[in-house]
Amino acid sequence: RARRSTLLVSAAALLSLPMTLAGSPSAAFVNAPSRMGSVAARSAAACKSFQPKIALRAARPATGAARMGKSVIQMSTDGDMKTLNQKPTAHDIATGRDPRRVKVFDTTLRDGEQSPGCSMTSEEKLQVAKQLHKLGVDIIEAGFPVASLDDFAAVKQIAETVGQMENPPIICGLARATVNDINTCADAVMGAKFPRIHTFIASSDIHMEHKLRKTRAEVLAITAEMVALARSKVEDVEFSAEDALRSDWDFLAEIYSVAIKAGATTLNVPDTVGFTTPSEFRDLIKYLRVHVVGIEDVTLSVHGHNDLGMAVANFLGAIEGGARQVEVTINGIGERAGNAALEEVVMALHVRKQYYNPMFGRDAMDQDALTNINMKEIYRSSKLVTSMTGMFVQPNKAIVGANAFAHESGIHQDGMLKNKLTYEIIDASTIGIENNDGIVLGKHSGRAAFRSRIDMLKIKLSDDELNKAFVRFKDLADKKKEITNADLEAIINDDQTQDVTAQRFKLVNVQVSCGIGITPTATVTLRDDQDGLETTDACIGTGPVDAAFQAVNRLCGMYGAGQGNAEQVKLMDYTVSAVTAGIDALGEVTVRLQDPKSGRIFSGRAANTDVVVASANAYVSALNRLLMQRADLTPKLHPQLVTLGKE
Asked: Whole-angstrom Cα distance, residue 30 to residue 2?
């Protein structure tokens, strides 16, 4: 097998290849694959009638390196590219969506939730799915139904609720190329108006040999059989060739052709390990448009990870090549370094619309949106996912980071005061960050002013939810002089997080004493709603927060928080952040606990002006989630780490 190698050669030497090699013994070198975009793309007249393909001598593999298949940088895009599929689907027609758009496939609830510590309950997933519907995503990948009973329940619930709403998204479930996975997935998504099954199998030599232990012929046969099975269940089937960017391009074209023939309506090209580059992704998409049979009748999709920090750039390159569906997550959460961030891809297409319009057959100045996303809901979606997962957004994160619209430099501030466009290419209001309406909320504010601000923020609450939020608001107003929009969103998100979590234990009281020369001590009172008991205990610790956690553990019958030899629970992460500036700022605390036996991680979040109270509430919330799952604390099934036939 060919291995990756390096060749240094001058441009002049390359241009003279047809003359110097013709009729010589060296001419044999011209028949092997070449790197796309180099020799095959040069514009010299001498190259028009002759396109050399240079075979490189295999380089010695690095010690310990995994054995790879053929180099992925190998194929030419020679030939006529087939036209892009712009025919409206049944979903497009029913919801009035432009078939020429880039479809946004959100996998926050599936791939995003696989990120360590981001696990959500079925009720929490439903909350996020409802927000994704408001955001306007085209497809929600609601989960991996066969992974667990809770995952199945979550996908089924989302299909039957969000999937039945007005202008609903397509509800999708993931399934490996096995009969059980596909049947289970079909059962889970069938309640949606527009269900989709997304099935996949590995296509790279390294995966087929070491993970699947199957030949190319066997993988092609499985693809044909399982895609056909999925198509017999639903009209909308997506097929992914896992690790496509490290696969042999000839084989990739073959497996996609087989999938289309078997009934696939969307072909997904995943950069499973974040390996590719923007130009390489673009060229692969172009290559597939030349060599895949029937590709003009399906949608080309891309999926990618951010291991080299290029996921969003890779997607934009793929769009230039002809991809018309992007698989993204809110805040870019996901496996390892995360997925391509929805907000970054969408805003790049929006801000640089004049650049991308011609690629969609539009006039450069056309103002029609390139996606169906309601950009006003981007910021709120980001905050909700942060609240539900406990995965904080870095301050300098593009689009939704705390510093994305902040300016400290004097020169920048001067320019901003004169014209915002001097240093901002996006107005904060575009993504839903609104300024106050002139009404200052404080302890004297009434219910009418509170509701007015909630309505201005376009937050929909039932009467009961509004009453709960108003009580929290009045409590905060007694401690904080002025309540900001960020404070209100933190309160509401905190209430929603608590509401969707089964709260067996509730924090009634916490009191701490600490200081120089004093042993930190915490007295905690918990109410156990299951047994109807209210108990109090006191513990010492390394600080007031640790003491409070130890007291909660004893009251709940748990041991070992924060200790390396924990038997029942282990504190993995503890984070505190201020919602706003100032000494009276509301503090948000996120706690992550791990069950050592199963390896499962559970997060809890709470907000309060008293950091110790917020910490105790967040810890109790995480503990409640762990205890709720205690009966099923087996390692969650991962779609990419289990061999076919060994479920």
From this structure: 15
Residue 331 confidence class, pLDDT cut points 50, 70, 90: very high
Distance between CA atoms of residues 292 and 251, nearest Å: 10
The residue with greater pLDDT, 127 or 438, is: 127
Sheet of strand 505-515, all strands in order from the earlier edge strand to the far edge = 505-515, 518-528, 533-540
Q: Is 334 helix (H, G, I), strand (E, B) or coil?
A: coil
Do residues 141 and 173 lie in contact, with contact meaning Cβ atoms separated by under 8 Å? Answer: yes
Distance of CA 276 to the CA centre of its chain: 18
For the chain, what's the residue count? 647
pLDDT digits (tens, 9 = 90+) for 186-203: 999 999 999 999 999 999
The tokens for 635 are 């390692």
Of 242, 177, 158, nearest in space to 205 by CA: 242
All residues at 6 or more sequence positions from 394 whose CB lies less than 8 Å from its CB, including other chains = 401
The answer to whether 619 and 549 are in contact (CB under 8 A) is: yes
Structural element, H or E, at residue 555: helix 544-556
Token pair recorded at residue 514: 């600490």
The one-letter code for the residue type at 139 is I
pLDDT for 356-394, tens place per residue? 999 999 999 999 999 999 999 999 999 899 888 878 898
Q: At a CB cut-off of 8 Å and minimum separation 6, what does 224 contact?
A: 258, 259, 261, 262
Q: What is the mean pLDDT of residues 429-452?
A: 73
Kind plus residue range of the DSSP H or E element containing 496: helix 485-499
Rounded CA-CA distance 302/29 in Å is 34
Can you tell me the distance from the alpha carbon of 442 to that of 476, in angstroms, rounded to the nearest whole number? 9
Distances (CA, A) of 613 to 388, 537, 548, 605: 19, 16, 9, 11
Look at the block and give the residue holding tokens 């095959």: 40
**What is the per-residue pLDDT across 515-540, written as a single tens digit (0 to 9) for each?**
999 999 999 999 888 778 889 999 99
458 DSSP 8-state letter: T
Which sign does the torsion angle of CA 153, 154, 158, 161 carry? positive
Q: Is the pLDDT of residue 71 over 80?
A: no
Q: CA angle 138-143-145, nearest 5°? A: 130
Q: Is the pTM of this model over 0.90?
A: no
